Amino acid sequence: MSFSEEKSLETSYPNDSLPNPNNLSTTPPIQAQESKKGFFRDTFESALVTVIMALFGMTFVVQAVKVPTGSMLNTILVGDHLLVNKFIFGQDGLMLDKFTPHRPIKRGDVIVFKYPNDPTTNYVKRVIGLPGETIEMKGNSIFINGKELAEQYVLADQPLGDPYAPLEVVNVKEAPLGASYKAYYSYEYDPAEAVMEKSLAGQKFAIEAPFQIPPDHYFAMGDNRDNSQDSRYWGTVPRQNIVGRAWVVYYSLDASKDGLGKTTSGYLLVDLFTRTRWNRIGTLIK
Length: 286
Description:
By secondary structure, the chain is an alpha+beta fold. It is built from 4 helices and 14 strands. The N and C termini lie far apart (100 Å).
């Protein structure tokens, strides 16, 4: 083979296909870089979708609330953390209503609503009177359109000096036909009395006199009837203030006093293990 033939043979290979004597790739290692970028991009997208779904859920589906007072004892305890079903009652006009199951607000529903006198505060009460109804209270008895409401009465006392503790039941009355919940009182009403002896100051709606509930408003009361600031004091709840129906207890912290007279230890992890009411978790609100 002549020198010209050897030169022709060498130049017959394209530049990018010359044999590599060391059998090493000559292309830059960009595949690993692309994989790393893909990992971060996928993680960011997943996190973004999670945040969007969480915001959607908190806006339209559920909301978490903490119960700081005893107005709903013993149905709901102080320190219960609740999930609120926000779509069950619908929102009167939202497109979401067409795709979610919802129903009208019923008597006996435990609702979470914005306090009419301070919309930044959420209240939890039970619906007793519906729009357009006439409601009247005579002692422990409630009359709706002149007919006595079926409620099961429970006589109970608050442990002395401890508003965070559950009520101590003294006597459970027989449930009348149609009663679906318990109403707790700390005394028995004597119909012979002209007025309620333990009527709390400030009660003015439906007390010993008929009161008609306005349209699109609801009369709401706490189950702990002798210790509840409710519609008897400040009036009815507008429909637009209702956030949803109290659904389930997802966590519960016992804030009642211990032997040292303290409500909590001051340490979150200690309280988590020593004050958690494990038996309350998953309790449905009825």
